[in-house]
Write a structure and sequence with these properties.
By secondary structure, the protein is mainly α. 68% of the residues lie in helices and 1% in strands. The protein has a two-stranded antiparallel ribbon with strand order 1-2.
């Protein structure tokens, strides 16, 4: 009796193991791991708010080290460096070209480092393009998981050190990894919106959606962040309208929501107004908490014609030490008018693509992400550099990618590439 036959008799389950399915699971896990590392790389580190109390250089070093590790891991699933051509990443690559040109003129070490980091990040996104357009929405589901892991760390920090968790003016922050209130709110709003849209598209159970959305929205309210709340409402509204005609659940949801909003206006309007005001004066509200003052400094910054077109190069998106907090003004400062046009082109391309796609849950999810990013871009640093917003827009672009019309065979990969092509990519 030869050895393989003896092994099969000793372990009958071994005969049921499908090597193709096992390889698919391995690749899927590594792709998700790359996605988690890329997201971790986008997180900033602010010392003084964490119970871990890591030195600033250590915290920032951990986040920065995630990017090269992600690239190496991506090369294990795509060793032949095959890309799937797409307009979205081609437009994003134009930002890299812009920053390389300006970085060569500036010769600042921080600018060159940020330029190299952006190029690495976009390169990692290109390496994952063979896995765009999957029927199981791999990148989207990986994003939902990592968002709830991040929110779980926020809750853990709240239990371990409530003082540090609310040290930022009484607004909820991350006390394990020091996430600012706006970052916590962004994670909460995106996570809540995605699970709601998944439920509307019948991709998630009602009980799971209720628990996940309630958890996320509760954390969002504790951050007292208006932009995230407005982005969540607008994103769900646009996503729901995109499938309103073909989905009875959406129609019932909107009817119930309209009644709930009407009752809230009549009963707790004062509480809602107080929460939105956050104790600020009328002047503070009209100036967007002082943001417009910083924007004026950006517009009045002396610049040459070349700097007006291509910008000053990548920085920490600040002017005279003050945060800009606007994607469009940050783009104008760092990448010039060219960068502003590219950023606008990204959103226009995604919206136009959505218009020509058939109604469905994937289009609804993508529209939620694009709508949220569009609204947040006016008051937050967004997708001009390495950021979570660039991750979200990449997910939206991957959802728009056309999948194969043929149903995949059992145990084969459900990507836009054929099984034979994926086998070649992974070898």
């Amino acid at each position: 009796m030869n050895l393989p036959v003896a092994e099969l008799r000793r372990h009958p389950r071994a005969a049921l193991v499908d090597p193709i399915a096992a390889r698919e699971r391995s690749i899927r896990r590594r792709v998700c791991a790359v996605w988690y590392l890329l997201y971790f790389n986008t997180l900033t580190y602010s010392p003084g708010y964490s119970v871990l109390d890591l030195p600033s250089k250590v915290g920032k070093g951990l986040a920065q080290a995630a990017l090269p590790v992600a690239i190496l891991l991506a090369l294990t699933v795509n060793p032949k460096v095959k890309f799937r051509p797409n307009v979205f990443l081609s437009l994003v690559s134009l930002l890299v070209l812009d920053t390389i040109i300006t970085g060569a003129q500036v010769h600042h070490l921080s600018t060159m480092f940020r330029t190299f980091r952006l190029a690495e990040f976009i390169g990692a996104l290109w390496l994952l393009t063979p896995w765009w357009g999957r029927r199981d929405m791999l990148l989207l589901r990986a994003t939902v998981r990592l968002l709830y892991v991040a929110l779980g760390s926020v809750v853990l920090g709240l239990f371990l050190s409530p003082h540090k968790a609310f040290a930022y003016g009484g607004r909820l922050t991350g006390a394990i990894w020091p996430m600012l209130p706006t970052q916590v709110a962004q994670c909460s709003a995106i996570a809540a919106g995605l699970v709601i849209v998944l439920w509307l598209g019948r991709q998630m159970s009602g009980r799971t959606t209720l628990v996940a959305a309630t958890f996320s929205i509760a954390l969002l309210l504790l951050t007292h962040t208006r932009t995230a709340l407005v982005g969540l409402v607008a994103g769900v509204l646009v996503a729901g309208l995109s499938i309103f005609v073909v989905n009875a659940r959406v129609r019932k949801f909107f009817a119930t929501l309209a009644v709930a909003v009407g009752v809230a206006v009549m009963t707790v309007a004062g509480v809602v107004t107080t929460w939105l005001a956050r104790g600020e004066s009328t002047q503070g509200l009209t100036s967007l908490t002082g943001r417009t003052d910083y924007w004026t400094l950006v517009l009045n910054e002396p610049r040459t014609k070349i700097q007006e077109i291509l910008g000053f190069g990548l920085s920490n998106a600040s002017i005279n030490g003050l945060p800009i907090d606007s994607n469009w003004l940050a783009a104008y400062l760092q990448e010039g008018l060219f960068g502003v046009v590219v950023c606008a082109s990204l959103l226009v391309f995604l919206l136009v693509t959505a218009f020509f796609k058939s109604s469905g849950v994937q289009r609804a999810l993508a529209l939620f992400l694009v709508t949220y990013a569009l609204l947040a871009s006016f008051t937050e640093d967004s997708f001009t550099d390495v950021s979570p917003y660039l991750i979200y827009l990449t997910v939206a672009a991957s959802l728009f990618m056309t999948t194969s019309s043929r149903p995949p065979a059992a145990g084969t990969s459900q990507t836009a590439f054929s099984s034979r092509e994926l086998a070649e990519i992974g070898r």
